[in-house]
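User: I'm designing a mutation panel for ABC transporter substrate-binding protein and want to avoid disrupting the core. Could you give me a predicted structure to guide residue selection? Please restate the sequence first so the numbering is unambiguous.

Assistant: Good idea. Sequence first, for numbering, then the predicted C-alpha cells:
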Amino acid sequence: MTQRVLPGLAGLMVLVLGLTGCADPSAPPAEPGAGAVTVTKCGQELSFQAPPERVVTLDQSSTETVLALGLVDRVVGTANLKTKVAPRYAADYAKVPVLNPKLLTGEQLQAANPDFVAASFKAQYTADRVGTREELAQLGLPSFVSAVACPEADEAGRTPFELLFSDYEALGRIFRVEDRAGELVEKQRAAVAEAAKTGEGVSGEPTVLWLYSTFNGTPYVAGGSGLPAEMSRLVGAKNAFDDISEDWPEVSWERIAERDPDVIVVGDLSERGAPGDSAAEKVSMMREHPVVSQLAAVRDNKIIEVPGIEMDPSVRSVDTLGLVAKGMRELGHVR
C-alpha cells in the first residue's frame, strides 16, 4: 500500500507534501466495478473495490462498533479512550494498538498507514487533528462518520437508533460481513422494543435529566437533539432540556433546579480523568449544591448511573437504554 502523508499539527506543509510528494500520481483512482461497494456517509460517497485491511478508529465508540462486527484483525490503531471498554469487547480491544490515548494527530495517523478511517463524530476530522474529510479524500483515504452525526445528510427522519443501525449495515457492506451486521441490528432492535414496552407502562410523563459531564463545575446536559431525548421517549419519559436544540448544552445548576427532574441519569467518564468526570463526583456536586441538593430526585436518590460513552450514539447505547428502563421500574415509575 502506498504510504500517505496526512494533515495534522504540522499544518499545510504536511498536506502539500502528502499531495505532491508521497502519493503515487501515476496510479489513477479505481473506478467502481461489478465488485465495488458504494455507501454514502455524512454527504460523502465512499467506494471500495475490496474490504479495507488497515483500519484506524478515532474514538472508542467507533472502535467498539468495528469490534462488534468481528473485525479486530483489520484494526491497526485506535485513540481517545473515554471510559472502560465493555467486557464483551475487552479481549479484542487489548489487541488493538493505542496510537494516542486522547486525540489522534495527523502524523500518528500517517504512521499507521491506514486504508480506512472511522469516527463517530464529524468533529474528529479537523485540520488541527487528523485533517478534514475533504483533505483525506484528496489523499485517497476514505473516512467514515456515524449517520447520527449528520441526520440531515443520511436518511433524514429516521430515529437515532435507526441511524445507528444504518451504520452497522453500511460497515457490513464495506467489509463484506452483511450477515454479522444483520445479526447485530436484529439484536439491538429487540432491545429497543423491550425498552419501549417499559415505556408503555410508565405513569404520566416523568422528566429525566441526563448529566453528561462538568467543566470547571459547570454541568453539561442532554439537549433535545441528541440520543438521550430519544431514549427518554422510549422509556415513557421526557428529557428535562428537550427545548434546547443542542446535543450537550451548557447549563447552570440553578437551571437544573428550576426544571426539577423526577429522575437524574448520571454519566460515568472515569477513564477520561478530568475533574468531575466520574459519576461519583457528579453526584457529590449535586448533594453539596445548596439548591440542587434540595431536589426530590437528589434527596430520594432517584439517580441512575450509566457509562457516559453510552449517552452518545454507540454500539453500547442500547445497554444504557436498558439500564434506564430498569431504573424507571425500580424507582416506581412503571404501573
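For picking mutation sites, this is relevant: The chain has two domains: 12-176, 202-330. Confidence is low (pLDDT under 50) at residues 7-34.
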